[in-house]
Amino acid sequence: MNWIESLQKAIQYIEEHLLENVTIEQIAAQAHISPFYFQRTFTLLTDVTVFEYIRRRRLTLAAHELVQSEQKIIDLAYKYGYDTPESFSKAFRRQHGVAPSEVRKGSTSVKSYNRLAIQVSLKGAEPMDYKIVEQAEFTLVGIKQAYSYADGENLREIPKMWEEAYANGTEDRLLALNNGAIPGLLGVCVDQTEIKGKQMEYWIGTAYHGEIPEGLSSLTIPASKWSVFEVKGPLPESLQNLWKQIVSEWFPSNPYEHAGTPELEVYAGPHQAPQIWIPIK
């Protein structure tokens, strides 16, 4: 099964079980990848989390039923996964900008979030520069935080983590320790699904060999073959766009698969472009 078919099968599964309490594990299994990497890929391509997509689709269908049927609002609230009419009305107003009762009167418009469909489009005219690198196992030292990826907490909190590391001097401390194979600061995503459930660890660290300094933790990055991409343009937009391009264009066009080990964002210095390192097989 190719990459596009796998993703489409997962979307089909979501739509067929839209009113059930499906888990990210069940959805990701349809695409034959880990929950963490499925959620990451889905969010990169759509700019929303899987469960935000489900919420939007449910409230779209709920609005349709309000117009087309005579079902009570309380019954629709339960049908679409809300414990009370109040919580349903609050979520409905947040999405549609109006209360369910106003829609029932037929006097206002609502927003429709349509089912996702994978379309093959002409891309790739703009070249992507990359190189393949073999890197032996190495150790990084740094700080780490655990975040939920199911609700997008990682997307909100990781930028704050970088801001805090800059403000309190952690970045400067790590740069002074850098004596390993890769220069500069590293941002590292580590899948923790099998250990802690819908969680990932994010590290800000640097390649280092020696005794672990007080107040820092260490992480071993296994030996791997890496596809290395250079980020071009102003941050953070260029970084986000490159991630999306890797997922939507590069992987479907090349004979590589993600190796399932941690990815790296490499910040070598103020006068050098950041890089994205993807472990491949």
From TrEMBL:
It comes from the Bacteria. InterPro entries: AraC_E-bd (IPR010499), Cass2 (IPR029441), Homeodomain-like_sf (IPR009057), HTH_AraC (IPR018060), HTH_AraC-typ_CS (IPR018062), MarA-like (IPR050959), Reg_factor_effector_dom_sf (IPR011256), Tscrpt_reg_AraC-type_HTH (IPR020449). Gene3D superfamilies: Homeodomain-like, Regulatory factor, effector binding domain. SUPFAM superfamilies: Homeodomain-like (SSF46689), Probable bacterial effector-binding domain (SSF55136). The keyword Acetylation does not apply. Keywords: DNA-binding, Transcription, Transcription regulation. Residues 8-106 form the HTH araC/xylS-type domain. This is Effector binding domain-containing protein.
